[in-house]
Amino acid sequence: MKLPEVKNADKYTGLYVVDFGDHCGVGFTAEEIAELLESDQFADVQVYKVHRANPDGTMELKGVPRQTFGLEAGMFFYAADEAAAQVDYHRLLAWADEQLPPARCKVHLANAGELFVTALIYPAEFDDAFSRWLLDGNYRTAGQVEGGTGAVERYYDVAEKILERKNLWPASSIEHFHGEALMEATNRAIVR
């Protein structure tokens, strides 16, 4: 695989490289990769995430399985009682108000049998970004914590009742545009 020469390689860290077989493309977002992989035309492409980029333009890549772009991952913060879970849930939402999440996600406060859980569920390709986001917000809870794609499946099996829910969006999503900016984004989306 021969990557095209890039300037300011560090701006590509966290983005994706696609090997189309006869050429490569650099700088795709996770959303663009997910859309690309839905097409039969690109069934054989290989996807890599730019893990690190060097000033000389070289990049350290990490292969990403295509199924990652269709999975949900999550982090689940358990509490022994509803009051403690409420505190965890509202603290997470307060952090999201202060610093928008790295991608679209859903936050649930749910009864999970004998425990209560604050669930943060997002596209699996953003797992590293959400870990960093929670660390940046110094988000901690007193109870057990579980995460990953398997944890999402377990959560859906044990969540008896969702008590509160909220969908969150990153700053770059259309949900955060207003007025003229919303019209421009909408027109741009239609023209594509």
Strand-helix topology:
Layout lengths: L15 E4 L4 E5 L1 H8 L8 E8 L5 E5 L8 E8 L2 H17 L6 E8 L2 E9 L3 H10 L8 E4 H10 L2 E8 L10 H13 L1
Please provide a brief summary of the model.
The protein has 192 residues and is α+β, with helices and mostly antiparallel strands. The protein is built from 5 helices and 9 strands; from the N terminus they run ββαβββαββαβαβα.
What does this structure look like?
The chain is of the alpha+beta class and 192 residues long. Helices cover 30% and strands 31% of the residues. The chain contains 5 helices and 9 strands. The strands form 2 sheets. Strands 8-5-7-6-9 form a 5-stranded antiparallel β-sheet, sandwiched between helices. It has a 4-stranded antiparallel β-sheet with strand order 2-1-3-4. The longest helix is centred in the middle third of the chain and has 17 residues. It is elongated and about 55 Å long.
